[in-house]
Specification:
Chain A is α+β, with helices and mostly antiparallel strands and 349 residues long. In chain A, 24% of the residues lie in helices and 36% in strands. Classes of the chains: A alpha+beta (349), B mainly alpha (274). The interface between A and B is medium-sized, with 26 and 18 residues. Chain B: It is a multi-pass membrane protein.
C-alpha cells in the first residue's frame, strides 16, 4: 500500500500555549483516518495544517511524496469540508460546485457532467438550480461534500462535518460517507470529538490528548486494548477499579486478575461493562450488592456496589437479570481486565 | 361602545390610534406639500386651493440655474459616492478582517465628524481650504461632502464584511481560488447588499448637503439644496413645494431600491461596533 499522506514531527504552538507537538502519522491511499479527541486537543490544528490554513512551527507534511508545507491552501491537492458556513449563499448549488472547476479552466460540458455526477454521489441529483438557503442543513452539508469530492483531491479533509446535524441524520451521513469512500477510493482524514462516530467510520483512529497522539490503531484494537488510561476513559464505556498489583496478579478486593504487563503497586483496573459477569456470592471472588437494574430493550444495565466501595456497571442479556434482586449480594468476575499504573493524574476525571 | 372594546380589545385600539397619529404625522406634511405644489391660489381657511395650476412647475423647470443645479448635484453625488467606495471599502475590509492596534479607536474616530456642530467644523475646514486654494472648486465641494459620509461608508460595509464567515472564504481558497479571486467572487458579492445600502446613503446625503456646499462652493457650485434655499426665500411657498418634490423623488426611488436589496436588520447591523 502506498502512503498518500505523511506527517512528520509536526509541531504548532499558539500564543495561548495550546497546540500540537511531535505529530507523526502516515495515511495509506484510500484509507479513512479519524483524528479523535476532546475540543482543544489539537485535532483541528493538525487538519488545518494539512489543508494549508495554518503554518506549522516545525515538521513536514507530504502528500504523494511531495512536501506541501510551504504551499498556500489553493495550491494544495487537498479539499476540506468545514463544520458549517460551507456554501456561498449568493451562488446556486451548480455555481458552488462549478467554482473550483472553473478556476481549473475546465470546459462547460466537463463541468456540467462532473457536477451532476457529484450530486448523484451525495444523493441530491437535480439540485443544481437551488440556492443554499433553500436546502436543509443536511442537504447543505451534502452539497459541501460534493464540492470537495468533485475536485478529486489527493486527500479529503473533513472537520467535524456532521456535528451540526441531528443524531438521526448524523447516522445516515456516516453510512453515506462510508459508501462514498468505497466508491471513490478517496483518502480521507476526518476530525471528530464523537468516539462513536470515529469507531463507526474509521479504518484507523488517532486518539489525541493535549496536543499529542495517545494511540493510533484500528477501531477494534483501540476499543479492546486502550494504550493509556486516557484512551480507556475516552473510548466506549468503562469501569475503573482501584487495585494492587502483586507478582502475577492484580487484586481488587477479594478478586484476583492476571497481570500481563507486570505492574507493581497501586493500579487501576479497567473493565468493559460487557465483560462483567455476575454469579453467586463466593469467598474467592470480588463481591458486591446489586444497586440498580434497568432493562433497556435488548439488554439490561446493572449497577453493583462493590466491597471496595466502587460501583461497577454491567451490561447483561435481559433474561439474566430476572433472577437478580435489588440489594442481593453477588460475586463479580471479569472476562477481561486491563490494568494501568496508578498515577496522581489518574485519580481525576 | 363597550361591545366594541370587548370584541377588538384595548390593545388593538391603542395600536390603531398610534398608527393613525403616526400616519398623519408623517404623511400629512407630504400631502400638504403635494397639494401646495399644484395650487394656483390658496388662502387660509380653505381646506383646498381655489385654483389648481401647474404654473410653479413650469416656473421652476424653466429657470436655467435650476436645471443646471440638478445636473450638478447628481454629478457631485456620483463623484462623492464613487470616491468614497474606492476609499472606504478597502478600509472596511481591513476593519473587518485584520487585527491592528487601536482598531476600535479608529472606527470610533469616524464618529468625530458627527460629534461637533457641523457649521463649526465646516468653518475650520474652510479656513484650511482657503490656504489650499480649494474654495469654490469642485474638489472642495466633493471633499466636504465626503466628510459627512465616511462613517456610513466604513461602518456599514465593515459589518457586511464581518458577516462573511472566515470558513466561507477558506472554502474558496480550498477549492483553488487565489486571495484576490476569493475577494472578487465570494467576499465582495456577499457583502454587496451592505455596500449598496451605504452607497445609497452616501448618494442621498450628498444630494441633500447644503451647509458645507454653501460655505465652500459659492458662487460657482450651486447645488439643488442651495438653489432651493434661495427660491424658498424669494418666491411663494408653492415654488418651494415644487422644488421639494423634485428633491425628494430620487431619495424615495433610491430608498425603495435599497429596501429591496436588504432587510432593515442588516441596515441596523451596520451600526454595531464589535
Amino acid at each position: 500500500m502506498s502512503i498518500q499522506l505523511s506527517i512528520k514531527d509536526l509541531s504548532k504552538r499558539y500564543r495561548t500555549g495550546e497546540g500540537v507537538s511531535d505529530i507523526n502519522l502516515d495515511v495509506a491511499k484510500g484509507e479513512l483516518v479519524t483524528l479523535l479527541g476532546p475540543s482543544g486537543c489539537g485535532k483541528t490544528t493538525v487538519l488545518r495544517s494539512i489543508g494549508g490554513f495554518l503554518e506549522p512551527d516545525s515538521g513536514d507534511i507530504q502528500i504523494e511524496g511531495r512536501s506541501v508545507v510551504k504551499l498556500p491552501p489553493e495550491k494544495r491537492p487537498t479539499t476540506m469540508v468545514f463544520q458549517s458556513y460551507n456554501l456561498w449563499p449568493h451562488m446556486s448549488v451548480y455555481e458552488n460546485l462549478a467554482f473550483g472547476l472553473k478556476i481549473r479552466k475546465k470546459s462547460k460540458a466537463e463541468i456540467r457532467e462532473a457536477v451532476a455526477g457529484a450530486l448523484r454521489l451525495v444523493r441530491l441529483p437535480g439540485a443544481e438550480k437551488k440556492l443554499p438557503g433553500q436546502l436543509s442543513g443536511g442537504q447543505q452539508q451534502r452539497v459541501a461534500l460534493a464540492r470537495s469530492l468533485l475536485l478529486q483531491p489527493a486527500v479529503l479533509l473533513l472537520d467535524e462535518p456532521f456535528s451540526a446535524l441531528d443524531a438521526k441524520l448524523r447516522h445516515e451521513m456516516r453510512e453515506e460517507l462510508r459508501e462514498i469512500q468505497a466508491q471513490t477510493g478517496l483518502t480521507m482524514v476526518f476530525v471528530t470529538h464523537d468516539q462513536e462516530e470515529a469507531l463507526a467510520l474509521s479504518d484507523r483512529i488517532v486518539v489525541m490528548n493535549n496536543g499529542r497522539v495517545e494511540q493510533i490503531g484500528e477501531p477494534q484494537r483501540i476499543y479492546d486494548d486502550p494504550a493509556s488510561l486516557y484512551v480507556a476513559r475516552f473510548i466506549g464505556k468503562m469501569n475503573f477499579l482501584d487495585g494492587t498489583a502483586q507478582g502475577e496478579f492484580i487484586r481488587v478486593g477479594r478478586g484476583e486478575f492476571p497481570n500481563p504487563k507486570g505492574l507493581a503497586g497501586p493500579v487501576i483496573a479497567a473493565v468493559r461493562p460487557e465483560d462483567v459477569r455476575i454469579g453467586a456470592a463466593d469467598d474467592r471472588a470480588l463481591s458486591g450488592r446489586i444497586k440498580q437494574s434497568m432493562v433497556l430493550g435488548h439488554y439490561a444495565e446493572v449497577s453493583i456496589e462493590t466491597e471496595t466501595g466502587g460501583t461497577v456497571r454491567s451490561f447483561l442479556p435481559k433474561d439474566a437479570v430476572r433472577e437478580l434482586d435489588i440489594g442481593q449480594n453477588v460475586g463479580i468476575s471479569f472476562a477481561k481486565t486491563i490494568a494501568y499504573p496508578h498515577t496522581n493524574e489518574s485519580t481525576g476525571g | 361602545m363597550l361591545w366594541y372594546f370587548r370584541s377588538v380589545g384595548l390593545r388593538r385600539i391603542i395600536e390603531f390610534i398610534l398608527l393613525t397619529v403616526f400616519a398623519v404625522f408623517f404623511a400629512g406634511p407630504l400631502l400638504n406639500l403635494a397639494v401646495l405644489a399644484f395650487s394656483g391660489q390658496w388662502t387660509y381657511p380653505d381646506a383646498l386651493p381655489h385654483q389648481w395650476s401647474l404654473k410653479w412647475w413650469s416656473f421652476v423647470l424653466q429657470k436655467e440655474d435650476i436645471a443646471q443645479s440638478i445636473s450638478l448635484s447628481f454629478l457631485i453625488a456620483a463623484i462623492v459616492t464613487g470616491l468614497s467606495i474606492v476609499l472606504c471599502i478597502p478600509a472596511a475590509y481591513a476593519f473587518a478582517r485584520i487585527r491592528f492596534p487601536f482598531k476600535r479607536f479608529f472606527l470610533f474616530s469616524f464618529l468625530l465628524t458627527h460629534a461637533f456642530p457641523k457649521m463649526g467644523l465646516y468653518v475650520s475646514i474652510a479656513v484650511l481650504f482657503y490656504r489650499l486654494g480649494l474654495m469654490n472648486t469642485l474638489l472642495g465641494v466633493v471633499l466636504i461632502h465626503m466628510i459627512n459620509v465616511l462613517m456610513f461608508m466604513t461602518w456599514i460595509p465593515t459589518a457586511a464584511f464581518r458577516n462573511v464567515h472566515a470558513a466561507q472564504e477558506e472554502s474558496a481558497r480550498d477549492v483553488g481560488a487565489s486571495p484576490l479571486r476569493v475577494f472578487r467572487s465570494v467576499t465582495l458579492p456577499m457583502a454587496m447588499p451592505g455596500i449598496a445600502v451605504a452607497s445609497v446613503f452616501t448618494f442621498l446625503n450628498s444630494l441633500d448637503e447644503a451647509q458645507g456646499t454653501f460655505l465652500v462652493g459659492i458662487p460657482d457650485y450651486k447645488t439643488m439644496p442651495i438653489v432651493m434655499y434661495s427660491i424658498i426665500s424669494d418666491f411663494p411657498s408653492s415654488a418651494g413645494a415644487v422644488f421639494s418634490i423634485i428633491l425628494t423623488a430620487p431619495t424615495l426611488i433610491l430608498l425603495l431600491a435599497a429596501q429591496r436589496l436588504v432587510s432593515a436588520d442588516v441596515l441596523a447591523s451596520g451600526f454595531q461596533v464589535k
